[in-house]
Amino acid sequence: MAGLPLLAAGGDFAFAAKVASIERLIQEARALPDVSQRIDFISGKLLGVRYQANMLIGGPNHPERFVVRDDAFDCVTFCEVVLAAAIARDLGEFETSLRRIRYDHGNVQYDRRNHYFADWCKRNIENGICRPVAIEPSVVIDKTVTWHREFGKREVSMIAVAKATLMDNAKVLAAGDIIGFTSRRSNLDFFHTGLIAFGKGGELLLRHGSQSRGRALEEKMATFVTVNPVKYVTLLRAAEATPVVERR
To answer: Which residue of 51, 80, 146, 230 has the fewest C-beta atoms within 10 A of its own C-beta?
Structure first.
């Protein structure tokens, strides 16, 4: 399938050409019984893929296009593609799942895209794709965000745990858990996201699309949260669920 569109989705949606590895990884991962194991397997196979910012196509004055590619990721699309592939049984389910993960009710429109990761978390809990990882003590962070100025002021609410709580509770986490790092900026909810992984000796790792290093990679979580201004994080875990076909 290299060099061909993923699916004949019509003029409103565009698939990037290079997606052959997604189909292969879906099939290889199906032998693993648990969705967290499949996320860990698929994300590991995509390490080294280059980082690219501004992956998605669309804007307030431009039609939204449904973009899927496996040759480049930003931090969010890395998690989205891995998660969609892990819960899918074939390319058709992968497409459906990715639409539901990326857009409110799977509607491919610019104003339905999960521009804020707080919305990404909330909607993917509501649609049954993810569930919160319960670690205590936790806090509720309420913010008014304005990062995307075309949407005006937006109130978001985030359940989060402190950096120290994260590091003290590594045994509660599972490989493949989704982690969001809250922002200290007054107008932004999260500044980064990635996946939980573990080293051979059980060391807690972050697997993510790294802008500073230019590729998808894994690194020690302790190093990342020390070098970066991490105060709180949000944690989600994928749920085993059959993708639902959204009405459009």
So the answer is: 146
Does 13 reside within a domain?
no
- Res 163: pLDDT: 98
pLDDT at residue 12, rounded to an integer: 38
Instruction: State the pTM of this model.
Output: 0.90
For residue range 61-120, what is the model confidence (pLDDT) as tens digits? 999 999 998 999 999 999 999 999 999 999 999 999 999 999 999 999 999 999 999 999
Containing domain of residue 135, as a range?
130-238
Which residue's entry shows tokens 């995307």? 148
Residues 143 and 52 in one domain: no
